[in-house]
Every structure is written in structure tokens, then in C-alpha cells.
Amino acid sequence: MSIGLLGQKIGMTSVYDANGRLHPVTVIAAGDNVLLRRLTDENDGYSAVQVGFAAQKESRVTKAELGNFKKANVGPQKFVREFRLEANLPEGEVNLAVTQFQPGDFVDVIGRSKGKGFQGVMKKHNFHGQGAAHGSKTHRRNGAIGNRSTPGRIWKNMGMPGHLGDERVTIQNLRVIQVRETEKIILVSGAVPGCNGSYVVVRPAIKNPGALLAAHQEHAKADAAAHSKKPKKAGEIMAEKAAEKKAAEHKK
Amino acid sequence: MNRILDIIEKEQQKTDGAKFKVGDSVRVHTRVVEGDKERIQVFTGIVIGRKGRGLNETFTVRRISYGEGVERVFPTNSPRIAKIEVETEGKARRAKLNYLRRRKGKEATTVRE
Lengths: 252, 113
What we know:
- The structure holds two protein chains of two kinds.
- Chain A has five helices and eleven strands.
- Chain A is of the alpha+beta class.
- Chain A starts with a strand and ends with a helix.
- Chain B is mainly β.
- A five-stranded antiparallel sheet of chain B has the order 4-3-2-1-5, with no helix packed on it.
- In chain B, strand 3 and strand 4 form a beta hairpin.
- Chain B starts with a helix and ends in a 25-residue tail after the last strand.
- The relative contact order of chain B is 0.24.
């Protein structure tokens, strides 16, 4: 059973699969995840593992954190997260290597998106803005934001300018394309939030896209079977009609 | 570029690929999958341009088929390309031979400047 991984986004490239199709992939380096602590139902109220990633200077962590690392007998770590577990999973089965994922698995990747600063509504909320020409003097403003005395206030969630990006973003259902044990990297299809070098959490997909995909393929197969009958040629249709006519005459 | 990305891209690139230039007449053997059978299809024509570098390199082949100009773009490193044969070498003085598109008849299939 896969638990999850902490990793670092290396960058994007593309790989060919066995069918010769090119897939865009993000490379995530996820070596040396260290187990810091087991959280149990009795002690903590839920069961999980605390995992650390990327070594850190001792002077950069607080004494409280350092105590936690010392207890686990590992050096200080930059990036520490928890993964929930099924209760009573034996110690030996906590696998924090990249091999816990196989090609074809689906994962969710959590990262921190690139900060875009203070942005207007066109970039932030995909508003259309106003005309560029014909004497229009407003171009990229938000326009009207409400009515008059009814309701007499601005609706909640009205799109307004403000800070964009630099927030936690989860991308669900990315397919694992390759797992390389020696280099301790995994390749997932598509893009992942954050800049190259940022830390990401890779966890097994909480939805079940594998089942959905299987259902889709079943449908597609049924469709293909229905359509695979060859269209009749004009000659064949004529022959059939003639045969019908003959049969009808024969009956008379 | 990052070392790991470099490794991933390098190992997918073909090292034995036929050396061809812009202006060459080539035969491109592509693997075509039909149902569960695989066969080789050949596309013959003049290379009128190469684009991109590394893993993302592509080349364009142009031919006149039944009086109609046809162009196909192939990724150089695609595993679906089985073989590239050079039939005749052309002497092109340009990197892109887009002027062939305006030409008609015999002129459109020969490179000479």
C-alpha cells in the first residue's frame, strides 16, 4: 500500500511510452524520505506517519523541532509533513521509497503555486475587461460590482483585484508514468504547482480515477464494436433490394 | 538544463538516426498500428525544414501526391519512425525551403539554386 512521498519538483520534460506516444511529464525527486514519528490512535487520536525530507543545518531549526529529530535519530529536515495511515499498519510495511508507486498509479500532488503579486481582475478572475478602441477610456477594470439599494451591499465572493498565487494548490489524478529507483525520481503526467526546486507532497489519489478510466474504456470498446460493422457498398444494397423484390413476387 | 532532465531526454534520443540535411529526398519508414497488427508505411519527399532541438526536434517532408502538395511533420526521435533513408542529397542554400510551396511541376520537386 502506498502512503505518500515528499519530493522536490525538478522540472518538466516529455517521454515516449511503449506505444510511441509522447507524454508531458513533471520530474519529482523524492529520495531519502525519513520516518520521524508514528502517530497512533492511543497517543494522538489518529494514526499517521510524520515524514521529513531534505537535510537542513542544525542552526536553522528550533530547539523543539530539533528534539523531535533527535528522538527519531535523524538529522534536521527542511520539509516535514504527515500522512494518514490505516490504524495498526505494521512497522515493516511503512515504505517511504519511490517504489511504493508503480507506473499507471494515480496520484495527487500538492504544492505551493508561483506567486504573481497583486493582480487585476482580468488575470485573476478571467474578466473580459472593456474595449480597447472606439474612445473607450477604461480597459482592464472590473466594471460594476453590484446594484443599488437592493441588495445595498456587495455580494460575497465578488471578483476583485488582489494577491494571486503563492497558495497551496492540489492537482488531482495525475498518472505516474515512470518510477526510477536508482535515481529516486518519479515522473508524473502533466504539470505540478510551484516553481522548479519547490517542495511537493505526492499522495495516492483520493478519488479513484483508475476505476473511472476502466469504465470509460469499456464504453469505448462497446462503441467501437457497434461501429466496426463495415458500411455496405452500393452494389450490395442493390443486390439485397433485388432479392427482396424477388421474394415478394415469389409470394404472390 | 538540469542534470536529471538531461539524462531522461538523452536516453530517448536516437543515436543511430540517419544523417540527413534540408533539401535531401528521403524515405521515412513509419510504424503504423492497425488494430493489433503493425506495418511499415513509407512517406517519400523532400525535407523542407528542421525545427527544434534535442528531444523536441521535428522535420517536415513535402511531396506532390496526385498533383496535390502534401506535407508531414515527423518528430525526429519518435520510436514510431523505423528508418530514414536518404535517396538523393540536395544542395540547399536555405534552412527552410518554404519557397517550394509556390512552385509547380518539376520545379517543385527538385532543389537547385
